[in-house]
Amino acid sequence: INRSDRKSDHLHLAINQYDTQNILEDIKLLHNCLPECNYDEINLSTSLCGLNFNNPIMINAITGGTQEAYQLNKKIASVAREVNIPMAVGSQKIALEDQNYQDTFEVVRRENPRGVIFANIGAYATPQMAQQICEMIKADGLQIHLNIPQELAMGEGDRSFQGYANNIAKIIDYVDIPVIVKEVGFGVKKEEISKLMDIGVKAVDISGCGGTNFINLENSRLEQPNLPSAKDWGIDTGSSLLEAVESSYHNLDIIASGGFSRSIEITKALALGARCVALAGYPLHILWHYGQDELISQLEQLLTELRSMMLMCGATSISQLCQTPLLITGKLREHADLRGIDVKKYARR
Ligand code: FMN
């Protein structure tokens, strides 16, 4: 099977298998009955590795490399422009191998000439490849993805992953735009956060478990799976986000992703310390079934609700939201205890 057909399989399987899970249910925000601020004062702006955004949500890497992907990317880019949020394209490796696919990515910049757009490629990339894909879409930033479970689940996937950290360091040195390292749905723990910081990474998208699951997507393509059905593999989004926030000491910008679809979850992730929340499966689902206008209105609704929830926390900015008390309970608390993370400080801040 060629890369383009595989991309198309992923897209359709992700759409067919889309489901929502109750992520971040072990995190509770505490209501403020006397917030002393006005709705109009609420400022949603945030920044990520030196880039400023008006809104703290973005559309994460999804697609490119098929004719269908051309249409989808065109629509996603115009949604991102209308809602005024950043977006990432899917892995551009396919466009390096076959120039015919370049246009499925370039369309994004044509649709959204002034927006914040992230390029995307795997950690195997050479600095020159990275630079080339950034130029292809005049990217403002570059996402480097880590997707080992997916590669192992794929019959035709990579089997050698040595030297990735060194590679990432070389790319950071070579390209002149900010670099985000991201998972694709299995989470990042604190040990790897530290390693990434050591090599100079300034932003990590934890992309935890709880949304799109690439082991399951790959398994549905195979008669004989290479990995067991992986409902339980991966670090859930809440645990990964907590580990990342705790180990970054504010020297790293954290992007939360993995299963986000509701404003309450977005508010919780930002309150815990994420700079931005990225969504993939959810916008794809809305776009596919209900179209572009509906996606615009759903995303605007998420932002409206986020404003209201910030007000009900007494926070007029994302940085104030990070100072409101959060209760971390249940399984997430157990995870934190076992990993040596003190969650009481969040409840008492
Ligand atoms: N992540 C990448 O970094 N590169 C990709 O090329 C890529 N392709 C994806 C294709 C599809 C159809 C989907 C649904 C996701 C893809 N992702 C890719 C992963 C997402 O960016 C995100 O990390 C993951 O889906 C978890 O977020 P979600 O639960 O909101 O979907």
Strand content range: 5-15%
Characterize the overall form: globular
CA radius of gyration: 19 Å
Overall mean pLDDT score?
96
Second CATH tier, the architecture = Alpha-Beta Barrel
The strand count comes to: 12
- Count of domains: 1
Rounded to the nearest angstrom, the distance between the terminal CA atoms is 53 Å
Low-confidence stretches: none
Q: Supply the helix-strand structural class.
A: alpha/beta
What is the CATH superfamily label?
Aldolase class I
Ligand species: flavin mononucleotide
Output the CATH class name.
Answer: Alpha Beta
Characterization of the model:
45% of the residues lie in helices and 13% in strands. It is α/β, with parallel strands linked by helices and 349 residues long. The chain has one domain (3-24, 50-311): TIM Barrel. The strands form three sheets. It has an eight-stranded parallel sheet. A two-stranded antiparallel ribbon has the order 1-12. It has a two-stranded antiparallel ribbon with strand order 2-3. The longest helix is centred in the last third of the chain and has 22 residues, at 292-313. It binds flavin mononucleotide. Flavin mononucleotide (FMN) is lined by residues 10-11, 14, 60-63, 90-91, 120, 143, 145, 182, 184-185, 207, 211-212, 257-260, 279-282, 284.
